[in-house]
Amino acid sequence: MDTNTNNAEARLLLSQAKTLRFHTGNLVNRSRMKKCPSSPSEELRDCIQATLSDWLSSPKLPATDFPDTLDCSIPEVTDAITPEEREEVKVSVKLFLCEPAQSAIKDAVEMACQMLAVSQLDSVIIAPPWPLEGDGQTLTHLQPAWEKLEALVRSQKIVAIGTSDLDKDLLEQLYNWAQVKPSSNQVNLASCCVMPPDLTAFAKEFDIQLLTHNDPKELMSVATFQEAVQEAVHDLKVADWRLEWVLRYSVIVKSRGIIKAKGYLVSASRASP
Fold it and tell me: Shortest CA distance to 56 belongs to which of 130, 2, 122, 125?
């Protein structure tokens, strides 16, 4: 089947789908990135474009049915973890929720387990969407997502759960309220060059690991996502597509502390008319 036929079948599938799922594959092994990305947002944009382009050019069977959820991943580039190496590696995840729907959390965790061929993730850090009015997060804002994570810990899909960008007061509120306590809290070094002393003291007292990150509050805007898809699929109508969630994973060899694999899982949906 030639490339033009592949493209035609792919575009037909894309035009009918209601949900798109991407798996970038292992970025440690990918050499097709045009340049070294300057930020997590740029890396994600490059990954979406590369994954879609690869998927568009891969062989397609003639479309006889049109799935609501379309998997735009390339099976050959996924990096499943074998049962023999599972004990040797730690699978860490950060989940960026772009929409408030809590069902996304379970969907994302299940997709990560499926793609990596594991039954359980070692740690998940949650980054909920920030409130629309521009205020900071509150405990009320965090609770629904945290309850979903707690349920996944109880069902043994996740070992440990953590938070991102909480100050000492909010981390303390969450800790006191939560049934499954946060094991870590990420701090953005762009907003504070030195860890706040009150946060450091609280984390030390309650055995919460403080980590650093450089992710923006909004990992990718709606417009940027639509541009990334449009550049890969030139004549696709993209105005009604929205990101639902982005999951970034790392597979780390415990004994050596090196990253064996890292990548993104992405879910996007078409807005209902």
Answer: 2
Minimal CA–CA distance to 163: which of 202, 132, 197? Answer: 202
Q: How long, in residues, is the chain? A: 273
Instruction: Give residue 145's region: left, alpha or beta (phi > 0; psi -120 to 50).
Output: alpha
Q: Tell me which H or E stretch contains 6.
A: helix 3-16
**Local structure of residue 273 (DSSP, 8 states):** -
| Average pLDDT taken over every residue of the chain | 86
For residue range 144-195, list pLDDT tens digits in order.
Answer: 999 999 999 999 999 999 999 999 999 999 999 999 999 999 998 776 667 8
> Parallel, antiparallel, or unpaired: how do β-strands 19-23 and 69-71 relate?
parallel
Q: Reduced to 3 states, what is the DSSP secondary structure of residue 162?
A: strand
Strands (E), the chain: 19-23, 69-71, 89-97, 121-127, 158-164, 184-188, 209-213, 241-253, 258-270
Predicted model pTM? 0.91
Give 81's DSSP letter: P
Q: Determine contact, residues 97/105, Cβ cutoff 8 Å.
A: yes
Q: Is the Cβ–Cβ distance between 6 and 57 less than 8 Å?
A: yes
